[in-house]
Structures are given as C-alpha cells and as structure tokens.
Amino acid sequence: MHGIRVLVGGVLAAAPIVLAAPAASVAGPVGAPYPPPAVCVDWAGVLDAPSCARITRVLDADKRATTDEIAVVVVPTTGGVSIETWGTGLFNSWGVGQRGRNNGVLLVVATDDQRLRIVAGSGLTDRLPAGTASEIIEGTITPLFRDGRIRDGVLAGLDEIRRHLGHEVNGTNQLTEPSMAPIPAATDSPSEPVWVSAMVLAVLVALIGGVGYMVLTGKEWFWDRFDSGSASSHSSNFSNSSGSSGSSTFGGGSSSGGGASGSW
After folding, report:
1. Is 80 contained in some domain?
2. What is the rounded (10 degree) CA torsion for 148, 42, 67, 252?
3. What gap in Å lies between CA 133 and CA 75, rounded to an integer?
4. Is the dihedral of CA 152, 155, 161, 165 positive or negative?
5. Is 18 among the domain residues?
C-alpha cells in the first residue's frame, strides 16, 4: 500500500492512507418533508386528536381482519411539487401495504394547495381502480371539502375506500358519525350555458346559409371563412375541475402511481 512518509523519532516511516468508504446515500423527499410513518397524520390542524385516534384504531382493526393497510395524511402543502409525485413518494417511502401483496391505500390532502389524492398499491387495481378512486373523490370527498368540512370529508372518504375494498363498515366501526350533516348535493352548472346554445344555433344557421350560397355560386372562399370562424368559436375553454396520532410499521408495499387526484 502506498503511504505518506512521516518523521517519527527521527526515523522516516511509511504511514498508510486509509480511505473511508462513502456513506450510503439516502434519497430525500421531493418537495415538503415527509412525516414519520403513522396511520393518521395531521400537520394542518383539521383533524382533532380524538378523530385521529379513532381513525388509527379502526384502520388497525381493518388491517388485522383483512391485511389491507390504509393511512391518511393531511398537510398544508406538498412544497411546490405535484401531489401525485409527493403522494406516491410518501407511499413508497413508508411501504404502505403488505410486501408482495401491495394492498395499501394512502389518502393525501394538502389543504393550502386545495389538492388531494388517493394513492393505491399496485396490487389493488381490481378492488380500487383509478375510476373508482376518482368517484370517491368527486362524489364523496370534494363536495364536503368545498363546503369547508375537511374533517368530515376525510372521514367519509376513508369509509368509502374501506367499502370498495370489501371491508365491513357498520354502525360500530364506521368513521362517519350519525350526527354528521349529509354530503351536499352536487350543484352541476349547465354543461352548455344559454349563450353557448345560442352560439351553436348561430353557427348552424350560418352553415346552412353558407352551404346554400356555395351551391348557388360555387364559391370556394366560403369554406375558408367557415374554417376560420369555427376555429375562433371553439377557442373558448370550459374547464371541468375535476396530524400524527400513534405510530405504525407498514408492511413494505409499493405503488406504481395508481389512484386518482382531485381539487376543490
């Protein structure tokens, strides 16, 4: 081994150089820091302590009965990254679900971002496909969130996830409370407002008249005008919006990004 010669008591000696092995790198979270693993995490202050404790008891009982692992995390923000990236990263960092079965579900809510996601393990494509997760978000959770009832939305959403997984949800173990107000009825705005219908009618009238004129005159310029008018009429966009209690050791499951997201 090559060394560095040092003077020891007037004698030159070869001192070996020892190079320490580099420490194993640990991938850090993307965006906001990940909380420690737990069945119920509330860093946004929307779930009171009794609610989080009950969530933990009920979901732990479900785990013992079914081996499925469900958890919920409420944070103010995911720190500038998409909730899809942050949620899947957290899910895999914790290992929600049983190893090999990948039967975990993580409900992530970012209150300041007004975004939420249901992250499903890769073994739940049959019981909780993306379409079902989206239905739970749009039909159960976000109506309550839009009504300012974040706690109620979390509880109702968890119960719906449990039902779709085939868990027994009854009067003794449901998270929603009998006294809880019902989910607000969806107030769907008309998909085609009156002015849109009028615009379509006007276009149809112009089309009929233009075709007649073209037949009579044989002018090709009509099509050019119609194409430009149609492009401008379709340029309008109608966007269709789509704390910690206790500790838990998850089983080592993984997710490939399955689930669904929503906003309110």
Report:
1. yes
2. 130
3. 20
4. negative
5. no
pLDDT band at 199 (very low <50, low <70, confident <90, very high): very low
Structural domain total, the chain: 1
Judge contact between 46 and 82, C-beta under 8 A. Answer: no
**Nearest CA among 91, 108, 90, 92 for reference residue 31:** 90
Average pLDDT over every residue of 114-139: 97
Total-model pTM: 0.69
- Identify whether 59 is part of a domain: yes
Q: What is the CATH number of the domain that holds 83?
A: 3.10.310.50
pLDDT score of 202 more than 80: no
Residue appearing with tokens 């119609």: 226
Residue span of the structural domain in which 68 resides: 40-186+242-263
Beta strands 115-120; 104-110: pairing state: antiparallel
Query: Which tens digits make up the pLDDT trace of 10-64?
Result: 444 444 333 333 333 334 577 899 999 999 999 999 999 999 999 999 999 999 9
- How many Cα atoms are found within 13 Å in the side-chain-facing hemisphere of 174? 14
Provide CB contacts within 8 A for 83, sequence distance 6+.
108, 110, 113, 115, 116, 117, 261
pLDDT at 178 (0 to 100)? 87
Residue type, 103: N
Per the model's pLDDT, the better-predicted residue between 26 and 199 turns out to be: 199
Predicted confidence at residue 203, as pLDDT, reads 44
CB atoms within 10 A of CB 93: 14
Picking from 102, 136, 137, 135, the residue whose alpha carbon sits closest to that of residue 120 is: 102
Kindly list the distances between the CA atom of residue 38 and the CA atoms of 55, 189, 192, 254, in Å, as whole numbers in the listed order: 11, 39, 45, 16
Phi then psi for 63, rounded to 5 degrees?
-60, -40
CA distance 60 to 51: 14
DSSP-derived 3-state class of residue 43? coil
